[in-house]
């Protein structure tokens, strides 16, 4: 019998496995994906949001706990557990040395990644390199790993973990267990149920693309919900980004993002604006646009820019539609020409002259326009013009298991003595809604490490009959 069973194969699961093994526990990790697709959504990440009180290696200036907390509070609208959120924030300031010991390397913020040099530490080689480094370290330490090993259900007794049952019927017992198997973003039927039908009788979730892994079906999350575990979060809330409509159904990752929204305007299928494109810095707002687009007709939006924006954002993988006139661009996008041109002309007329600076909350804004554009409002008047069709891209869902500072799963308000949770399966404790770049990896790293340590302690106590 293993001391600790880890269910999942992404960042949170690997952090838990490494911490449990470092504490002396024998560890078995079960990854539902084949080896080639291991790592869950973590393989698509690229950075970690870090608190620091002075310049540190790849991070410039300072990013103090209170500013980090205020950034999170703002994007979640207060829908967050402050104690757990601050735990994550503080842990983000001390985890990088441990990560380096397990082979993770960092690099300075990319030149096209605006405003993140102070707040986010980027992984050299991206999330795939981080995942591979952790797997190599875990193998060296003696963590046993199995791929293609999807867990279907758990055997529980009065809130205590007893064993896991694989889809093929195999039963695996352990002295303690960490659940880190992700959300349900790849389960189309669950997404449909969570989002329901809109007023037009459509099912918005049918038009969602999945930025992350196809293996996050939410099987264990659903089992735990039905088993009476305490839950947290709204099933319709998620990390949802507006991504290129030509992106693949699964595993598009970072490269499907289109980051020019704040430099132009966003239109819906009716060629109408529907939200303030310049509300705040892009890393604090990029993850609201998927949900906004999901609420529009046919779940599609169109980011429109002119040539002044070129070179001011990370170039997308797929080129946009390009035209020398606005009517021509409207025709290419399949939008009503007259309405398209009228919307842009009204926006142009509302733009107030100011000092444009995309690195600050500048004074370029609109006047007497609904919705307003609060910053970076420049007229779209310099051809060629560009348009990008965007769809909602779900990264991970926020419905999860309620937990505490020990990462314990709760039943009827009581923490389990040997069942713990980390990563997407509990992120909803910190993220009730909204997102700020890099917080997902911070949550997974903090709670993965806590869960692994606590699981090792629980296993040691069980081995002694305590």
The count of domains is 2
CATH topology label of the largest domain:
FAD/NAD(P)-binding domain
Number of helices: 12
- The SS-based structural class is alpha/beta
| Cα shape | elongated
Describe this protein's structure:
- It comes from Aquitalea palustris.
- This is FAD-dependent tricarballylate dehydrogenase TcuA.
- It holds the Pfam family FAD_binding_2.
- Its cofactor is FAD.
- The chain is an alpha/beta fold and 466 residues long.
- It folds into two domains: 256 residues, FAD/NAD(P)-binding domain (3-Layer(bba) Sandwich), CATH 3.50.50.60; 155 residues, Succinate dehydrogenase/fumarate reductase flavoprotein, catalytic domain (Flavocytochrome C3, Chain A, domain 1).
- It is built from twelve helices and 19 strands.
- Strands 1, 2, 6, 7, 8, 9, 18 and 19 form an eight-stranded mixed sheet that branches.
- A hairpin with a 4-residue loop joins strand 8 and strand 9.
- Helix 1 packs parallel to helix 5, helix 2 packs across helix 3 and helix 10 packs across helix 11.
- The chain is elongated.
- The chain starts with a strand and ends with a helix.
């Amino acid at each position: 019998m293993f001391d600790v069973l880890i269910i999942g194969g992404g960042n949170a699961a690997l952090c838990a496995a490494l911490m449990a093994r470092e504490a002396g526990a024998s560890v078995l990790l079960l990854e539902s994906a084949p080896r080639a697709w291991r790592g869950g959504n973590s393989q698509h990440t690229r950075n970690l949001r870090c608190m620091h009180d002075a310049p540190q290696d790849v991070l410039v200036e300072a990013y103090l706990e209170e500013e980090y907390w205020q950034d999170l509070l703002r994007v979640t609208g207060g829908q967050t557990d402050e104690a757990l959120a601050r735990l994550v924030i503080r842990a983000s300031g001390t985890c990088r040395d441990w990560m380096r010991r397990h082979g993770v390397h960092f690099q300075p913020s990319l030149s096209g990644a605006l405003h993140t040099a102070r707040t986010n530490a980027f992984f050299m080689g991206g999330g795939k390199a981080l995942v591979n480094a952790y797997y190599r370290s875990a193998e060296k330490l003696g963590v046993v790993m199995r791929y293609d090993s999807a867990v279907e259900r758990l055997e529980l007794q009065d809130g205590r973990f007893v064993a896991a049952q694989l889809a093929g019927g195999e039963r695996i017992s352990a002295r303690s267990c960490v659940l880190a198997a992700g959300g349900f973003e790849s389960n189309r039927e669950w997404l449909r149920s969570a989002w329901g039908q809109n007023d037009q009788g459509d099912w918005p979730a049918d038009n969602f693309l999945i930025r992350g892994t196809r293996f996050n079906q939410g099987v264990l999350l659903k089992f735990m919900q039905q088993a009476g575990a305490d839950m947290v979060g709204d099933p319709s809330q998620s990390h949802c980004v507006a991504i290129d409509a030509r992106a693949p159904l699964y595993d598009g990752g970072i490269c499907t993002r289109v980051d020019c929204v704040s430099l132009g305007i966003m239109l819906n299928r009716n060629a109408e604006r529907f939200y303030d494109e310049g509300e705040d810095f892009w890393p604090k707002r990029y993850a609201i646009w998927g949900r906004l687009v999901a609420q529009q007709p046919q779940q599609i939006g169109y980011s429109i820019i002119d040539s002044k924006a070129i070179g001011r954002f990370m170039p997308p993988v797929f080129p946009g539609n390009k035209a020398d006139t606005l009517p021509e661009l409207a025709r290419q996008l399949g939008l009503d020409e007259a309405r398209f041109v009228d919307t842009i002309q009204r926006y142009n007329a509302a733009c107030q002259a100011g000092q444009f600076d995309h690195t600050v909350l500048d004074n370029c804004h609109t006047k007497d326009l609904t919705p307003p554009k609060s910053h970076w409002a420049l007229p779209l008047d310099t051809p060629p013009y560009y348009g990008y069709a965007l769809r909602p891209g779900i990264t991970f869902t926020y419905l999860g298991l309620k937990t505490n500072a020990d990462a314990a799963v709760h039943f009827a308000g009581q923490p389990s003595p040997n069942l713990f949770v980390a990563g997407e399966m509990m992120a909803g404790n910190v993220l009730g809604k909204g997102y700020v770049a890099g917080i997902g990896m911070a949550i997974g790293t903090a709670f993965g490490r806590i869960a692994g340590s606590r699981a090792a302690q629980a296993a040691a106590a069980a081995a002694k009959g305590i």
